[in-house]
Amino acid sequence: MSAEDVYESEKMETDKMSDKDKISDKSSDSEDESSDETSDNEEEQDKQATQLEKKIKRNPYEYNTYIELIKLLQKMAEIDRLRKARESMSKHFPLTPELWLSWLKDEMGLATSDIERTAVAELFERAVQDYLSVDLWLEYAQFSIGNMGLQYGVKIVRDTFERALTSVGLHVAKGAILWEAYREFENVMLGMLQAKVNADSNDAQKQELDAQKKRMVAIFRRQLACPLLDMEKTYQEFTEWLNEEPDRRDDVDMKNIENGFKKALLKLSKILPFEEQLLSSDDASRAEHYRAYVQHEISEGDPARVQCLYERAVAELCLDASIWLEYVEYLYSTLKIDTVVLPVCKRAVRNCPWSSPLWQHYMKALERYEKSFDEIKEVMEQALSVGFSNAEDYRNLWLCYIDYMRRRVDWSKGYQPIEVAELRGTFNRACEHLAQYFGLQGDPNCDILQYWARIEAAHCGNMEKFRLLWSDILGQGHEKTAAMWLEYIQWERAFGDNKHLRRLFPRALMCTEDWPESIGNAWLNYERDEGTLDSFEFCMSKYKSRLKQINDLRKRIAEKQAEMIEQDKWRQERRQEKGKKQNPKDTWKKKHETEGKWAAVAPKSTLTKPGSKNIAEVASTPSKQSSVAEPPPGYEKRERTVDTSEEPSAKKSKGEKMETEHGVTVVHDSSKDNRTVFVSNLDYSVTEDRLKEVFSSIGTLTDLRLVKDYKGRSKGFCYVEFSSVAEAETALKRDREPMDGRPMFISKCDSDKHTRQSGFKYSSTLEKNKLFVKGLPLSMTKEELEEIFKPYGSLKDVRIVTYRNGHSKGLAYVEFDDEAAAAHALIKTDGMTFGERTISVAISKPPERKNTPAAVSSSSSSSVSVTSLGGGVKDLGPRGRGRTQVSLLPRALQVSRNTSATNVPAPSSVTSNGSNSSSTTNGDDGGGSGDARKPMSNSDFRQLLLGTKK
Question: Is the pTM of this model over 0.90?
């Protein structure tokens, strides 16, 4: 090999090494970049998780924030932070079976020691308490099978299965899965025992094997006695299991098992329609289907099945407070077991904390089962911290708690200062709480104050306090009510003295306005029972005097009411008279029949043919000029000129714009509708340039017409014409896209106003995640409103309703990401005050849009005309005027609308003496044309008006 060849080979080798180094460098660079990206991503996730944790710390009742944080921490594999987030969520909310299963699977994968597995078992115990779930119990049973190696492992597994069957074994749709898992476990245990037992086995092992076989038979018997799906398949498996070995049929009561199986099949046939309804029902009707199902089970008289069905209902409808209330009331009245009733009450208030009746049932159940005062007091404090939507819920809650506090005092043992002081403090706190948040509407009938007054009078004997409380009651606007005074008088007479009672009667009689007779009768009865003659006569004089005042007052009120009724009746008659449509000819006849000398004069009007000259114009005689009245001073005659050279507007080209006093009008070209869209709900400040900027991104614009009023201001809608149909279809997909803070409503262009549909489409159903707020200060901004509602959940949108000029109407819509946050915000913010304004918050439910009657297509054989209000056929007078317009034409020349045109004679010439040369007279010509009239000259008019014509 030459030196050159050696050099070339060395060079090639060096180049290869260099290329390898470059590749290696690039690979290392890419790895570094990948690690940098991963690092950046982890930092971003950590920053996001920290923000979510802070958000939860500020408001621990944001359900969706918990969900988002848990998913993020699962991706980051932050075990400690994930546990903390889940524990916090479980503290404030009951978790769904899906959330529990996700948590449990993570913990089971990490549990290696006995201590950790024990912690997982405790977690399972918490999980099965929230909602009924077959999947959770099945996972729990399988986890317990993994502890078979521990001491009493088999017993633990069997206990877990038995508890699971007690909880969900009667679940018609899914319960069979758990039964099969239990049988599979026991069958494995049977196989293990059979493998150990042989001919040399002792009696103890054989007895254990026989006991295991009996256990298997018992499980089959119990399952076949429950109405579950696929029962026939289970019975077939039982017979096959018995036939596997001949001795398995020993001591098996097949008749009893078959009877139980037949009864269960009959039950299943009755409840299958209810199960099918549940499977096919939607969320709106599911509650009613469950109620019908429950009533059927109650009629069957099996409390265990009723309880299982209620558990299924509350698991699916966990936010329906009425279902929880029915469940609690059933357990409280039927089972009456504290270990069953109290956990359900606690779960009910965790799921529906806004329901005051649930809290009341919870406190009554705690009292029924003799729980401690501190426990009941803590429940009351929790209820007050939740917040209810109205004063009635708070008032009923306070009354329930006061009842407990009153029963807590043992009045038979005499005066107990500590308990009585606590009871008084409860009364005082209840009154202050209701007055602080609701004013006089917190307790409008003063139920709590009356309750307190009765306790002071009947149990404490403190009449001074009793009278002070009644002074407060009467001072809240009840001094005019007789029922309140009678209640006060009754208790004063029972526990007070005559001195104070005799002061009450005159006050009550003078103050009462609704029923003073009741006060007077009570006073008279008291004086008859215990009074003297002087006191009785004094009572009679006061009663008569007051009764006279009351009767006079009632008489004046009755007269005033009668007068108002007469006025209303008169107004109604006037409206009816004005609304009547009378025939002008009948009205004229009726008038002239009662006008003395004019009764004999009844000139009839003459109808002229279209295009003919007026009779007054034909009779152009000298007498005409002399009979015309002189015009008033300063009158100038205006001559009307008609420019016939100008073409009608209908003949102008369609594309030509016509300037009118109301702005610019563009003649619509329906041939371009397929590539034109109609855009509405625009902000009034949006310009054409802004619209072109938005829609030019879709395609080529051939025309854009922003509709304006006569002052040149935008009306908030426009027409956008594209160069192709495809571009118009693309524009329709951008319907409701926001532009300058308002969603655009984009719809197809339809020139027919009867068939077009409104571009503004909105749901008229209940929007549970959106709140409607009214009563806001007009100066409140969107940012300020967001700050108010942000603490209660994640906001999706906040919109303040404004006028055309942008000023607020005091209304707003607040939309949350989920319904739970909206419900929580409703409870907390309804009735909130800002200065002198109190806002009202409610779930949004827009009213349904009224449907306009559909127009009939022009191509149809017959058309239907739909007139608007007042748009019927009008009774027009002469010259096309309405009945209310004044006609300056004499009645003699007015034309009857009922006169046929064929009966009108042709106008003829008039002689110099004013007589008409026509042979037609004013009388009947015998030809059936009695309605025709002879044309009259000016002299005829003069004679007619002066009354000289015979």
Answer: no
